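Replying to the earlier thread about multi-chain prediction with a worked example.

Input:
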Amino acid sequence: MHNIIFDNVSKSYGNKEVIKQLNFEIQEGERVVFLGPSGCGKSTTLRLVAGFEDITDGKLFMGGTCVNNMAPGKRNIAMVFQSYALFPHMDVWENIIFGLKIQKLGKKEIEKRAKDALEMLHLDGFEQRLVKSLSGGQKQRVALCRAIVKQSPYFLLDEPLSNLDAQLRQQARQNLVRIHEINKSTMIYVTHDQVEAMTVGQRIAVLRDGTLQQIATPREIYDNPSNAFVASFIGSPAMNLITADIVDGHLFIGKVAVPLPDRITAVLTGKHSVIVGIRPENIHITTDDRAMLKGSCRYTENTGNLQTTQLYLADGTAIFSQFAGETYEIKAGENVGIQFLWENVLFFDRETEINLYVREKGENKYGNYRN
Amino acid sequence: MKINIKKELICHIFLIAAVIISLWPVVFMLSASFKELNQIFQSPLNPLPSSPTLENYMTVLGRFPIFDFIWNTFFIAFFVTFFKLTTSLLAGFAFVYYRFKGKELLFNSMLMTFFIPVTVLIMPNYLLISHVGLLNTPYGVMLTELADGMGIFLMRQAMRSIPKALLESAVLEGAGPIYLLRSVVFPLVRPSVIAIGIMFFINSWNEYFWPLLILKDKSQYTLSLALQMFISAEGGSEWGIAMAVAVLTSLPPLILYLFFQKFILNTFMQAGVKG
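Result:
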C-alpha cells in the first residue's frame, strides 16, 4: 500500500501556525491536487510530505509507516520542483541518472530506464545537451524525466507548469496525466491554477490559511463547494455570491422578493439572511417580462463561443452571466430579465459561509433552461 | 545623468596620484633589478636602467640556492592553501546546510576572529609550536594556518547563492552530505574555491613575520626570509640582487592573479566585501 495519511498534521514557525490539523487520506495511485491562493500552505504541506520541513504536531503516514522522523532520501519520493532544480553543471543525461547512480542500480538498468523516459517525453537526442541550453518546456520535461526514472511509488509536483506559456502548459498537463496513467504512483500536485487542478486532479484539496476547506472530486467541488470560499475560488468568472434576506418564504435579492420553493425553505428554516451562490452559466438572460429579476447590462464581452455579461440589479448588486454567444446578442445599457433555476442555486450561511444546502447527485442540471 | 566635469577631474587626479604612489615601489623594484649597484643610487628616480644588465639575476641563480627557497615557499603555501580550502569548504557547507543548536553563535564567534590582531596570537602560537617540537620546520609554519575565518565566511556566502531546490532535489534522490558536497555543491562553487585558494596561496607565499619566528636554518627559509639576507648583510646591502630576488618572489602570485582575476573579483563582489 502506498497511501498517504495526514493524521492531525500541523506545522508552526515559531508561534505562527501555518498548517492547521490536516486530516485526510490520499489513496494509492490517486492524483490529488492541492489548490489554493498563494500563502495558503499548499507548498508547505507538500514539503512536509517530502520531508524538507519537520512536522510540528500530528502524524504523517506513508504506506502505513509514520514518516515524521524519516529523512527525505529514505521516503522513496520523486519530485518535480517549480524551478525544475536541474543541476546546471551536468548535461541532460547526467541529470536524469543522478538518483539512479546513488541507488547503485546496474548500468544496464539505468540506461534502459533513462532511455525509456527520454523517449516517452520526446527528449531523445538531447542527452549531451547542457541544461542551460534548453528551453523552458524542455527543462520541464527533463525534470519530469528525472522524476519518472526513479519509479517511485510517490510522485510530488510543486507548481511544475507555472513557468510555461499557456500552450505548452496544456501539452505538459496531458503528458503528466498520461505518465500517471502508466506509472500509477500516488501523486500530489500543487497549483494555484484552477484549470490545472480541475484537469489533472482526480480529487482536489482546497486549502486556505493552512486549513483544509474541502477535498473532493473536481465535479463535486464545482457543484457542491463546502463553503463560499471554495465556491468563489473555482470557476471563471467566479460564482455570483449575493447577500439576501429571507422573509416569509421569500428571498429578497436586491430589494426584489422572489418566492422560494418549499423544499428550499425547509432547509433554510431559521435563517434570516444568507449568501446566495449562482454560477454565471446558470444566470439566464431573457426578454420575458415575467422574469424573476430585472437588471441592466453594464458591459459585455464576446469571445466567440461565450458571451460574458455584467448585469446590475436595481439596487446596484452586480451579477455575472455567461452563456453561449450565439443564443442572444446583448448590448450594453440594455434592460433585461434575469432567470435561474432553483436547483442551480447554492445557499451559504451568512456568518460561517458554510454551504447550507448540499444538493444530491444529479440534482443540478446545467444549461437545461430554455428561454 | 549629468557629469560634473570638475568633480570628475579632481577625482581622477587623486586616483592617478594613488596609482603612481602604489606602483612606484614595483617600478623601482623592477628597474633596480636590471641596474648595476652604483646606478641604483645615482639615479634612483629614473626608472629606465642606462645599461640594462642581467648580472643581478645571474648572481641570484648562481650564488644562492634560490630554487630551494622557492621549493620551501611553495611547499608551505601549497599545503596551507590545501588545508585552508578543505576546512573552509567543510565548515561553510555545515553553516549553510545544517540546522543545529548554537549555529549563529558559532558563526558569529568565528567572524569575531577577524578582529583579533595577529600580534596577539603570535605568542601563544609560538609557545604551542615550540611545545610540540615543530620549531624550525615548515610544519611549524603550517600548523597554525590550517583554517581561516575569512575563507569560511566567503565559502558560506558562495554556497548560499545556490538555489535551495537544487540541494533538496539531490537530498530527495538519496544523496548523503558528502555526495551532495562533492557532486553538487563543489562544482557549483568551483570559481569561488579557485579565487579563495589563490588568495590563500598568495598570502602564504608573501608571509614574512611568522616564518621568520619559526624558521631558523637558512636551508628552511622561504623566499621572503631569503630576501632579508641581501638587505641586512654586514658588508652593505646588495640592492640589485635583493630586487632581483624580489621580482622572482612576486612573479608566481602575480601570474596566478592575472590568470584568475575574474574569479577573484566575482567572489569578493558576491560576498559584498570590497578588496
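Chain A has a mean pLDDT of 89.

Feel free to reuse this layout for your own posts.
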